[in-house]
Design a protein that fits this description.
Blueprint (H helix, E strand, L loop, with lengths): L1 E4 L2 E4 L6 E3 L8 E2 H10 L1 H8 L3 E6 L9 E3 L11 E6 L5 E6 L3 H9 L6 E2 L12 E8 L5 H17 L5 E4 L5 E6 L6 H18 L4 E2 L10 E4 L29 H4 L12 H8 L14 H10 L21 E7 L2 H14 L1 H6 L5 E7 L4 E8 L33
Parallel strand pairs: 13-14
Antiparallel strand pairs: 1-2, 3-4, 5-6, 5-8, 5-9, 7-8, 10-12, 10-14, 11-12, 15-17, 16-17
């Protein structure tokens, strides 16, 4: 079928294809339903993605399989879909899609995208981000209220350094705060500014938040500053996430943050909210600030603590924590099955683990995410700790792959 959107004809293939299977009390949702959602919130969605190169995260086989991350825009595309060529430290480059209007949104969803993942730069200046992005990533077991409390600290840190924070739910477990900045600083300094926010948040709320880089050393809410590194992307405002209930990464007013409930913000509810309240981020583009105060704070703080030195026999970093690796798998379901097998083999040790001791790592492969399971045995008495054993699964995403190993954002 063909839809007329923004004066353009957009081809929609398999419009009745079920993207989100029915999950009580939510009905099944089709590709056409998803397109109609994005058209209903187009003004807000475009504020997050228009004129920005973006990775196409395509769920070509539905939610049951991992998405494929496609950096290069399809060769066959409408002439109103532009590209911008991003170059990476590896020496590779990719011409990524750049959307401009609601027709572009419909085009991307037709390709199998569910969420939209733009870079923090505009197509006209690929070296100087105009967004500072803070991603609050809770360790397992952290309550939603703690995430909200940390978000409010982030807001205060940004305000104290001359920036306006714009909050949104992530649509997943965490929370996002963006700040619009003048495109004057290269990625390296923008990332440093983000790291400085994380360190200052940890200083102000050490029991709630952490800026620790290594996953096994974190507690509470990790203030993820690395989303500001080059080649990183984040689900944009009004993106639908690949959750069974089709949650939306929803912009909020700050006075809504304390009482917000992510599970109430879905493709079913957000269009009406948008129609009634408008976009809380409507003034974002008129609020570009400076990084100077944060960079001055970074200089006063000095370099961040370096990770522990040392290497394993494989030449990798030796963790300060007693870690063992359980499995490497293609899918998350396989990873969790391997974890269950390990728990069955070692019930005494498994019974002493805290939620944050089980590390489920989503790892970047050549075109999709693969999974690694590690166990931090810090809460198991030393003489009762299981040894490192042969991996229960040892998936290699690079086997048979001949292309460059550039990383997706």
């Amino acid at each position: 079928m063909s839809l007329e959107v923004a004066g353009r004809q957009v081809a929609v293939t398999h419009p009745d294809k079920v993207v989100f299977p029915a999950v009580d009390p939510h009905p099944a949702r089709t590709k056409l339903d998803l397109i109609r959602y994005y058209l209903a919130v187009a003004d807000g969605a475009l504020r997050g993605v228009a004129d920005r190169p973006m990775i196409l995260k395509r769920f070509v086989k539905g939610l049951s399989q991992e998405a494929i991350f496609q950096k290069r825009a399809p060769e066959k595309r409408p002439d109103w879909i532009d590209v911008a060529e991003l170059r990476y430290a590896s020496g590779t480059s990719a011409k990524e899609a750049v959307l401009h209007d609601a027709a572009g949104l419909a085009w991307a969803i037709n390709l199998g995208c569910i969420d939209l993942n733009p870079h923090p730069v505009r197509a006209g200046d690929l070296d100087h981000p105009d967004e500072l992005r803070i991603d609050l990533d809770p360790v397992p077991g952290v309550a939603w209220q703690q995430i909200v409390d940390v978000a409010l600290v982030v807001r205060d840190v940004l305000t104290d350094h001359g920036l306006i924070g714009w909050p949104k739910t992530s649509g997943s477990r965490g929370f996002h705060i963006y700040a619009r900045i003048a495109p004057r600083w290269p990625y390296r300094q923008v990332r440093l500014a983000g790291e400085t926010v994380a360190r200052e948040v940890e200083r102000r709320a050490p029991d709630l938040a952490t800026s620790r880089w290594w996953k096994e050393e974190r507690h509470g809410v990790f203030v993820d500053f690395n989303q500001n590194a080059k080649d990183r992307t984040t689900a944009s405002a009004y993106s639908v996430r690949a959750t069974p209930d089709a949650r939306v990464s929803t912009p909020l007013h700050w006075d809504e943050v304390a009482g917000c409930r992510p599970e109430a913000l879905t493709v079913d509810t957000v269009p009406q909210r948008f129609a009634e309240l408008g976009d809380p981020w409507a003034g974002m583009d008129d609020a570009a600030g400076s990084l100077e105060a944060l960079l001055e704070l970074a200089e006063r703080l000095g370099p961040a603590p370096k990770p522990p030195k040392g290497a394993s026999t494989a030449g990798r970093r030796q963790s300060a924590m007693p870690l063992i690796e359980v499995a490497r798998t293609k899918t998350k379901d396989e990873a969790m099955a391997a974890l269950d097998t390990w728990r069955g083999r070692h019930p005494e040790a498994a019974g002493k683990l805290e939620a944050a001791d089980v590390l489920v790592d989503g790892m970047r492969g050549p075109s999709s995410i693969w999974y690694r399971i590690r166990i931090n045995l810090q809460h198991v008495p030393e003489d009762r700790r299981p040894p490192q054993e042969e991996l229960l699964a040892d998936y290699n995403p690079w086997e048979g792959y001949s292309g460059p190993r550039w990383l997706r954002g």
